[in-house]
Specification:
This protein is α+β, with helices and mostly antiparallel strands and about 250 residues long. It contains seven helices and eleven strands. It folds into two domains: about 100 residues; about 110 residues, Aminopeptidase (3-Layer(aba) Sandwich).
Length: about 250
């Protein structure tokens, strides 16, 4: 299932441009998020790997984006992780890919939330504000989300007319991916993360999903504990290899 999960998670959070290169997928989105600005090595590779690395570096640097390689157990050739390490690439972050079966999840919302199925720029404004991201990323986030072509759900929670939590769900076939779950710093550790995840999964169940998946940084202990409490199980890990270039990568 790992190849399929990689494919559907790429579809759920697209790049603005993708180049297929001898089994590798080079994704570009103005440096905004590593997921959309990294090299994925999903399929068999035949060309010289050192030449391929140099080719990728040239393309990303030409766009003022730091080259970034995503490493999974599918990576081909299998020694790519070691090759990148020898070239000065360090492990920038490690991600846990987790799933949860929606067998006993009802279809109706459980709290007062706003659920939208079309892109709302105000949702992106709230997402950027609560994460403390530069507002300059706004148009790229909008462009990325406009590329999502399978059903999506934007959940938000408000108090006193102020949004204090958001989350995104994207359905493809029997799967719903959970993305961009963030709570206003003043309201964290109050159970709102649970409410957002639960409502996303209920919406997914209502729209044909039987399995939820998410990707969480392994050093994000509050989120790891929340998902463990809810019953999510890790099925694999992946990590990003980067190197210190003069350009600054997007988050």
């Amino acid at each position: 299932m790992l190849p399929r999960f990689e494919e559907i998670s790429n579809n759920a959070w697209p790049a603005l441009q993708t180049i297929q290169y001898d089994g590798w997928l080079l994704r570009f989105a103005n440096g905004v998020t590593k997921r959309s600005n990294s090299v994925g090595m999903l399929y068999p590779s035949t060309l010289d790997p050192e030449e391929k690395i140099a080719f990728c570096e040239k393309l990303y640097l030409a766009r003022q984006v730091a080259p970034c390689f995503k490493i999974t157990s599918l990576t081909d050739p299998p020694d790519m992780d070691a090759r990148l390490e020898r070239r000065g690439y360090f492990i920038q972050s490690v991600v846990s890919f987790q799933v949860f079966e929606l067998v006993n999840i009802p279809c109706e919302p459980i709290s007062e939330v706003t659920i939208e199925t079309r892109l709302n720029p105000r949702w992106i404004d709230d997402f950027i504000r609560m994460n403390g991201f530069p507002r300059a990323r706004r148009q790229t986030y909008i462009a990325i989300m406009e590329q999502i072509i399978t059903p999506k759900c934007l959940v938000s929670i408000s108090r006193d007319r102020k949004t204090i939590g958001v989350g995104l769900g994207v359905v493809e076939g029997p799967y719903i991916g959970l993305f961009d779950i963030v709570i206003d710093p003043a309201f964290r550790n109050t159970g709102l993360g649970y409410l957002i995840v639960e409502n996303l999964m209920r919406w997914g169940r209502k729209n044909g999903a039987s399995t939820a998946y998410l990707q969480v940084l392994t050093d994000n202990m509050p989120a790891i504990r929340l998902y463990e409490k809810m019953g999510f199980k890790e099925i694999y890990r992946y990590w990003y290899r980067m190197k210190r270039w003069k350009v600054q990568p997007g988050r």
